[in-house]
Amino acid sequence: MNRKPIFDVVRQLLGRGFRPSDIALLDAAIDRADNDSPVPADLALGEAGRALIRKWEGCARRRSDGRFEAYPDPGSATGEPWTIGWGSTGADIGKGLIWTQAQCDARFDRDIARYVNEVRDAVGDVATTQGQFDALVSFHYNTGAIRKATLTRLHRERRFAEAALEFAKWIYNDGKPLSGLKNRRAEEAALYRA
């Protein structure tokens, strides 16, 4: 869901910009309102998927005071998107933003809930193993491409061996292959096959 129009209206009503606490409250309210989409209730992110995502996202840019600062995407020529905590991005994240560990963890949990729902919706009623689901959530968390990826179509067609091969095609940032993405996709493909 594109939240920008909602945020723009609320910003106009307030007559000021947002504080980080305002953004968290609005995001939570929108998430609660958007959680009525029909998805299989038995699909949830498992520990292997959560560990994989946290391993590759890291909770980076810890400052000497223990808090975390936003940083530009190191693989992007423009630095976009700005990132903080466990790989969180969005219109509310930019240069100068600083969060506590608790804020990083809360945003990760909220973001994961959204990505889990989007993957549930994308796989539909196809029988999906825990490993497949976890790998797809990790892939989507990193790429945002679950709806357009050939791998999703192949999964929905139950062509699982072919779908597993598709992970290796998502290793580029700004047209360049990155070794970190190669390694992450290899781990996702292995989890998908497990």
UniProtKB/TrEMBL annotation:
E.C. numbers:
3.2.1.17
A GO biological process of this protein is: defense response to bacterium
InterPro entries membership: Bacteriophage_GH24, Endolysin_autolysin, Glyco_hydro_24, Lysozyme-like_dom_sf, Lysozyme_dom_sf
User: Keywords in UniProt for this one?
Assistant: Antimicrobial, Bacteriolytic enzyme, Glycosidase, Host cytoplasm, Hydrolase
* UniProt GO molecular function: lysozyme activity
Return the similarity comment. Answer: Belongs to the glycosyl hydrolase 24 family.
Write the protein's name. Answer: Lysozyme
Q: Which organism is it from?
A: Novosphingobium pentaromativorans US6-1
